[in-house]
Amino acid sequence: MTDFERFTAPLHGLSVSSVWRGAGTAIFLEFGEGPNLSADRSDERRTGAFTLMLEWSWRIEGETKILGGSFSDAPVIEEALYGCVGRRVESVALYGRLPEVRLALSGGRDVVSFMTAEGDPEWTLFDNRGPATRWVHAVGGALAFAAEDASAPTGL
């Protein structure tokens, strides 16, 4: 089993609990239940046990067509993105020479990264379950795993 497969194994079978849009074309998919994003509850959005962030150059596929992508109009993005809520993760895979991510959801819906500009693929998968968030993303044509320093002080 690869490091990526070990990292993503607990994600299998979780449902998309919420989705949201970030700045520009960034989208976030939350899986399972997790802690609040902010201790002071200034942000009522909830983060999942896992979070997939796709910054740009992504698409959401149905069984027979692309439902929307990073360059679609806002209403198309909203419909494709919110259509993922409640679907279960069937698989998480890497593809391509550079590590792009493909997330297969129940009901024949896939969420796919595919960078179309110079640099690295722009996706990150966060594991929010522990006292310190861990994540994996693409850097320099390879996977990079990282974690917050759980011993570091928070706040001011």
Task: Tell me what you see in this structure.
The chain has one domain. Helices cover 10% and strands 38% of the residues. The chain contains two helices and eleven strands, in the order αβββββαββββββ. Strands 1-2-3-9-10-11 form a six-stranded antiparallel β-sheet, with no helix packed on it. Strands 5-4-8-7-6 form a five-stranded antiparallel β-sheet, with helices on one face. The longest helix has 9 residues. About 4% of the residues have low confidence.
Descriptive terms for the model:
mainly beta, six-stranded antiparallel β-sheet
The share of residues in helices is under 10%
What separation lies between the terminal Cα atoms?
A: 41 Å
Overall, the morphology is globular
What topology, given as strand order, has the largest sheet? 1-2-3-9-10-11
Secondary structure tally: strands: 11
Return the domain count: 1
Overall pLDDT, averaged? 91
Order of helices and strands: HEEEEEHEEEEEE
Indicate the radius of gyration in whole angstroms.
15 Å
By DSSP (H or I, 4+ residues per run), the number of helices equals: 2
Strand content: 35-45%
Major beta sheet summary: 6 strands, antiparallel
What assembly state would you assign to the polypeptide chains in this entry? single chain
Instruction: State the low-pLDDT regions, or none.
Output: 37-42
